[in-house]
Structures are given as C-alpha cells and as structure tokens.
Amino acid sequence: EADIYQTPRYLVIGTGKKITLECSQTMGHDKMYWYQQDPGMELHLIHYSYGVNSTEKGDLSSESTVSRIRTEHFPLTLESARPSHTSQYLCASGRVKLFFGSGTQLSVL
Amino acid sequence: AQSVTQPDIHITVSEGASLELRCNYSYGATPYLFWYVQSPGQGLQLLLKYFSGDTLVQGIKGFEAEFKRSQSSFNLRKPSVHWSDAAEYFCAVGAGIQGAQKLVFGQGTRLTINP
User: Fold this and answer.
1) Which residue of B has its CA nearest to A47?
2) What stretches of chain B adopt beta strand conformation (E)?
3) Residue A36 has what DSSP assignment?
4) End-to-end Cα distance, chain B
5) pLDDT in tens, B3-52
6) Would you state the pLDDT for residue B96?
7) Is B1 helix (H, G, I), strand (E, B) or coil?
8) CB pair distance less than 8 Å for A31 and B101
9) Of A76, A49, A45, the residue nearest A61 (C-alpha)
10) What percent of chain B has pLDDT over 70?
11) Residue B5 near chain A (CB below 8 Å)
C-alpha cells in the first residue's frame, strides 16, 4: 500500500479563489511529481521536484506553482482559480517506481 | 522527446478470455517502459516495468508485457481476465533526467469485462 496522501479528494470552488492542493508521502522519497489528468486523457507532468528547495516545471505549461520546503510535503497552489483549471491532479513520489496518490478532482465554477 | 501511443481507447472482453493491450512508444535511446492501472476514483498502481534484460516481463495480478524494440512496442497481456481487471490502463515511457524519472503517459485504454 502506497503511503502517499492527497487532500482534498474533491474540491468545488468559485472563480478567482486561491487554492492549495496538499500532497504528503511518508516513504522518504526525494523525488515528487504533479500530474494533471483530464477525463479520458493521458497524464501530463506539470511539476516535479528532486528534493527540498528544488522544483521544476514539467512538460505541460501550468499556471500553478509548487513548493518543497520539507521532503514529505509537495503542495500545489493556484493563486486565482479559473474554469480552465478544472481537472484531476495526481501527486506521485519515487525515483523509478512511482507511487501515486488518489488524486484531487478540482472543479472551478 | 518521448511519446506513447495506445491505439485502443476502449476494449471489451469476456471474463476468462485473453487480453492484449497495445502500446507503441517513441524514444531515441533505450526506454524505461511501464504499465500502470487506474481503478475508478483511485490513483495509479504500477503493474510492471522494463528497463533492460529479458524482454518478457512479469508483473502483478498475472499480467505480463513484452518489449519489442524492432516494433517500438510494449504490449500488455493476460491469459485470462477477471471482472476485477476492469479499469483504465496506461502505458508510459520514462527518461531519467538528472535522476528524476519523468514519465510520459499514453492516452489510456479503458477495459470493460463482460460477465
């Protein structure tokens, strides 16, 4: 069983709100990732981190930002949510074998 | 840049029948190849992976996959499917960059099992 947790599981929010999606892992992994997944579509890497104080943008451009102050924590923030941000966001950790959280389904009205 | 194509968006098979899910990749070097499964409302779980060596790899839940370099394929197979195998299956190719395993995923194949 993977020890990686995402909260909230579902989030419905109005346009313009600031939101933070939480991701935590207890496996001590240095490398963590955020993927975005639209229904019926592939996952796209939007952010990744090699370790504390290291973050990089992924292949898919995203208006979200991330931080990595602690090894176990990799939150994703949207300063001003828009309907185009509606999607599922999956957090993962690991070096070769990735462990995925259950995801956050974000709906922006 | 690497890419992955899963030609079949949706496949339906009967319980007990054999299964093959197709995956084609594009990558200039020797790829790291993965199959993940996603059950409804869940995150992804790794089924199996190929890095090097034996081109036929065994995974969990009775799945196997064969790497064919000449065809740039990494098809997933199972001899006899169970109703619990109904899920979304993703093929992915990875390239290690500075130690980070950046995976590129295919579009996924949704598997439906008929009783």
Assistant:
1) B102
2) 3-5, 10-14, 19-21, 24-26, 32-38, 44-50, 56-58, 64-68, 73-78, 87-97, 100-105, 109-114
3) E
4) 41
5) 899 999 999 999 999 999 999 999 877 788 999 999 887 788 999 999 88
6) 62
7) coil
8) yes
9) A45
10) 94
11) no
